[in-house]
């Protein structure tokens, strides 16, 4: 039986929670929508961990009516994220290289199960992931049954395409045309692998990797606004509030 938590129904404030896993307790953050109840979203962090940007996107989703859970996927490394500064990318790459991917997928499954059972969640649960989290969300979706998946420039996707037949949820994918980490040929390979009646796929001219993050040098304001609008529309269709 899941413990109940005393939570304030404020979309801009999170509550620390703990998600049981087979090998320990994973720290996470929970945002409630203004109504206090709604569909659930597991938010999969970018390479930088639970950053101010991830917290802002979680609050945006909560404001749109969702119960949002953001697990600290680097918890096994003793970290929640990297410190802001000129070496933040180096820090993030270091954490990602030390990350146990299979354990991370299991943690994602545990987070999804925890959220589905939460008293504030009214039925459906989806996944939203950015960068590192875009690939991790895809991998978790291949081993579970989310009601929707949104992946922003999933950096691990080129190595996960054998899982594509197992991802049966409606999915939305965003990529920049000028992504320095995932070239256009690879993006088209991803597009072909995930294609289906319930798949939406968008690319953005002049946008680089991590174009949605306003705290990173690659931020592309126009692409960010358009992609977020499409994300909200997609979620409203498949995870109606």
TrEMBL record:
The molecular function terms in GO held by this entry are: carboxymethylenebutenolidase activity
Q: Which residues form the Dienelactone hydrolase domain?
A: 28-238
**Cross-referenced InterPro entries, in alphabetical order?**
AB_hydrolase_fold, Dienelactn_hydro, Dienelactone_hydrolase-like
Protein name per its UniProtKB record: Carboxymethylenebutenolidase
Which keywords describe this protein according to UniProt? Hydrolase
Q: Indicate the segments annotated as coiled coil, or none if absent.
A: none
The cross-references to Gene3D superfamilies, in alphabetical order and at most eight, read: alpha/beta hydrolase
Query: Enzyme group, top EC level?
Result: hydrolase
EC code(s) of this entry: 3.1.1.45
Pfam assignment, any one: DLH
The answer to whether keyword Hydrolase applies is yes
């Amino acid at each position: 039986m899941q413990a109940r938590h005393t939570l304030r129904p404020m979309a801009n404030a999170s509550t620390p929670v703990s998600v049981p896993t087979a090998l320990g307790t994973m720290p996470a953050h929970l945002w409630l929508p203004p109504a206090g109840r709604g569909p659930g979203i597991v938010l999969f962090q970018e390479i930088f961990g639970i950053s101010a940007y991830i917290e802002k996107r979680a609050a945006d989703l909560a404001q749109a009516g969702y119960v949002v859970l953001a697990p600290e996927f680097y918890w096994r490394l003793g970290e929640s994220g990297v410190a802001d500064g000129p070496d933040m990318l180096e820090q993030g790459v270091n954490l990602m290289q030390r990350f146990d991917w299979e354990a991370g997928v299991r943690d994602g499954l545990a987070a999804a199960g925890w959220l589905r059972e939460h008293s504030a969640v009214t039925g459906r649960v989806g996944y939203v992931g950015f960068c590192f989290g875009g690939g991790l969300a895809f991998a978790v979706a291949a081993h579970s049954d989310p009601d929707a998946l949104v992946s922003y420039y999933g950096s691990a996707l080129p190595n996960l395409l054998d899982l594509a037949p197992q991802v049966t949820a409606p999915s939305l994918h965003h990529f920049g045309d000028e992504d320095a980490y995932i070239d256009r040929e690879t993006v088209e390979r991803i597009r072909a692998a995930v294609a289906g009646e319930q798949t939406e796929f968008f690319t953005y001219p002049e946008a680089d990797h991590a174009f949605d993050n306003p705290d990173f040098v690659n931020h592309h304001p126009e692409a960010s606004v358009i992609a977020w609008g499409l994300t909200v529309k997609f979620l409203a269709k498949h995870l109606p509030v």
